[in-house]
Design brief:
By secondary structure, the protein is mainly α. Helices cover 78% and strands 0% of the residues.
Amino acid sequence: MKEMFDQLSAECSKLTTRRYSTSFSLGIYFLSKEIRQPIYSIYGFVRLADEIVDSFHQFDKKYLLNKFKQDSFEAIELGISLNPVLNSFQKVINEYQIDHELIHLFLNSMEMDLCEQTYTPELYDTYVLGSAEVVGLMCLKVFTKGDQKEYERLKPYAMKLGSAFQKVNFLRDVKADHQALNRSYFPNVDLALFCDNQKKQIEEEIEAEFKEALIGIKMLPLCSRNGVYLAYIYYKKLFNKIKGLTAERIMTERIRIPNHHKIGLMFDSVIRHKLNVI
């Protein structure tokens, strides 16, 4: 029966999330039980696409991404895929009636990673929109459970949160992006000459987005608020750690939050949520 395959598919998406991201796994765990699996399914899809462009250097990445795109929309149309992660993803897209344009925008940003880019402010905004903001909107569709009015109300805040997360990732991964992948996302920034003043300008932009995103987190339904807030405070902690370092330092190492600190953040998030002091 297909129900058994759907369950296997869901488990594959969950395993993919846990293997690739302890921080998002913790955040998802603190969502209400009924919406955890759809978010695992969205993350599994995003992770596979990201792996194609970031990791499969010995293969034809352009072909693989095009095939992935074709398979994704075929799965959505047919309501099934033999790729378990795509089968899990299509179920969420169809069940929550997620706009296909969000998927197109996401995959467009992945395509931008296939070749060397010189990022103008416009291209930078386009990349962030597709790689992060629309992923937040897919999740928001799940959080609001079909309430379009609530979705529209929370949409700008979800986009700001996704943007802030992505820009923190850019700073965290700046060494690997520059040295291993020959990428530089920040417009008008030569990473070979990256300086503290440039880093500070980027941080001010991220700080403003975090501030606005928190307004929206406080308005989220109870089923999702705690999990999203946990992801927020994890990224805010990582961001603050990066802020305390020089541009030269982050160009030489990848900044991390140790797992035992993540557990501490988890308990702090739960307490704040229960006391309603987010």
